[in-house]
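Task card 7
Instruction: Convert sequence to structure tokens.
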Amino acid sequence: MQQHDFIKSFWIMTVIGLTTSVVVSAKPALISLTPEGEKLEAHYSKMLEDLKKEIVFLVPKVDGNVKANFTEQLTALRKVPPITKNVKDHIAKTVREVTLKCDPGNPAFVEKQKEVLLSARAVFKNSEVFLSDERHYEKMAKFAFLSHATPNRLAEFAQKGEEERALIGDLLNDDELVAQVMILGGAGDYGQAMRNYRAIQKATKRSHGGFFQIWALAASLQYAHKHYVYPGIPTEESLLKYYLNYLKAYDEGVLDPAFSKLGGTGWNYRFVFPDVYTLEDIEWIRKVMRNYRPDHMRREYRWRYCRIVRSDIPYCSRIMPARPDLNLSRIQDFFLEGGVCGPRAFVGQISGYAFGIPSRRAPSPGHGAMAHWTPDGWTTVLGPHFYFCSHIDGMKPMEFLLLSQAQEDPEGFKQVLMCEWLGRALGEAAPSNHGSGGGFWQLLGFYKKQAIVEDEKIKDIGTTGEELAESNVSSETEEVEQIEIPEEFREVTVAEDGTVTIPVAACKSPKNGEKIRFMESVDGGMQAHYGIIGQRPELLAYTVEIPKAGKYEFRAHVCTVTVDRKALLRVNRRTLLDVDIPYTKADWMDTEPVELDLKKGRNRIGYTHYTPNKGVSIKHFTLKPVKMVVTTSGLSASSAGTGQNEIANTIGVRMVRIGPGSWMRGSTTGPGDERPAHRVKLTKGFYMGVTEVTQEQWESVMPDNPSRFKGAARPVENVVVADCVEFCKLLTQKERAEGKLPEGAEYRLPTEAEWEYACRAGSEAKYGFGDSDTDLADYAWFSKNSVRTQPVGKKKANGWGLFDMHGNVWEWCSDWKGSYTADEAEDPTGAPSGPSYGHRVFRGGSWGSTAAHCRSAARNGCGTSNSRLSGLGFRLVRTLSTQ
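Output:
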């Protein structure tokens, strides 16, 4: 085995304790058993002892000279002279001297270990008959199972009932299955592992054979815990969902082509499912890769999928979550602004997991990184070599690497295990200090692994992207690969209605550069990606023949995973226009139309992005003739009802009168901040705005419009509480000065209680209109039907004539966010202000929210000064004149 050049002064000091210490696992504490459990324990213990006696009896006779030579070589290995090195501590930024003896960083140790391996090969040859006997292997595998599981813990599981006893019995009665369980690495809880395995086998016939069976068993062993990813759901149920999801993805050709050919013993299948990431995140990452960056799916395996970290997750410090109003998962949030080593490693991991590439965390002191499988072996990514990691899947990193290499030879690996199990039966110490310490047979198991690596010519492929561990700059020069684009994907077309469609590849020079990359789309055709890497903007230049002069609506068909982007259009060399790029969450969507004046015949259109920019993928552009312009002046008078209970103020805000009343606030099943549900009584009526305050209404009072999504009829957003309070104050002063405001009345924000009361409109259902998530789209703009704010009042009103109480924008309330109590409350105004309550409440969900966050009871909040969000606005309340 050729050793990787491990010793890099930047890293070694932080791991010196790991490379010189011996980890001894403590014996598990005994569990109290029922009388029935004690009988089972005695039965399993007798089985273990009988097997141990048989195995000890089978110990092969090793030639005395061969054994002595191996022992002598080990003694010499322990006596190699130590070396000293000056190394730099990358955390403390200091240099100190360290001593290395029995360590891969010591060249003398490495050379001497080759001689030890030669002497071990003589022992293997001397024991060949024993190590090749399949009958011995299955018997020893059962012994290894019982000793690892322990009779006490097996009995603790089996005593729970007939079903549990049968699961353990089925396993113990199937020698072939026991042997497979052990070659795949065993489990922490064998009872739970069998539960997992049987649930998968019951659900799908394919899991009974071929690689599907190996995959089902390996995953069942890896995640033998009480819960898997989803708290409160039994592991077997969660794991089955993952298996069926991946099975469907495999059938649809979504998983990596290598998924069915991970090879070796099947051990790699332990690591194809994520350790903590939800199926929702897995599905989303698949969409990101397939829509947004399909080129990363075709790279060589070191960077396949995980290249998304280098291209789209810049190394930086940031506040999390970056956009609380969007209610994103952690993985989605990482794409907004990037992150330090941990977030980058998480994204790299899940990008491989989503396509069935075995992956693990690879932390080192002070740094988060990852490791993943390739056809040439495992590699660490965005961090140091295995040698410097703290652990991989709970194992010493170098042991993990050697194990991953040795299991590529299933027959040879069986002999590894037989040596280890024989040593265990004889009570030998496990290998330690990189093969310099341990019992005779245990050490033979260690050197059998090294013999496999040498015989199979398995290489240590080292690190991937180590220089990017805490940096965005790589010393590697990336060769920009050009692709040939068929003419059919460059053809500009004109529809019967005059709409011109311009494929992104129809530009003047479709060449790949630093920022712009052309690539094949997963569903056919071509797309281009305008990336965040690079300093200088690049231009997509088009010459388009327009059949008729006039106004045209320009749209770009785009896919994005970040927010707050703008493109720049240059039309016929003189007109510059901004194009808002929507946050599409990795779906394909059109931008909002931008109106262009185009002449008949040849027109030149240039498309680029401001720097610094964020990534966007583009398929095509459209130019649609503007035939007519329809304008509205707001809601029709009949849309919310008319009469004496409705008023309109001087700036056009229509308001409906809400009478006093009581209801049950909060929920019994929602998140903790919504509980406990409790009765609230409002003793005073008030007027509430029929819609959220629009930008036109805002501009009639305030000097500046801070909104990101401009439009007179759209709700004002990007406002903080202080802005809203100032608006209410100025509007109150204005109408009082004009004599338009009744005595004692004033404008203000609603209390949180007033807001929920009005939202429910007498309903105690999930939403103001009922419990149906399907019907939500009729009442709300949210993540399923919008990527930006929309003009107010275009959806159905609730029972009291209020529009957009669900979705469009979150709405500020006047309260500080506090905890509910079970006590009945009268006219509550929230928690007291102060340092212990850092968040103001906002309610209702926004255009980027899930259905769950649009519920009447759903609460949210954030700080008062750093909360300018494009999904956060407000609604007016006016007190009655008698208040």
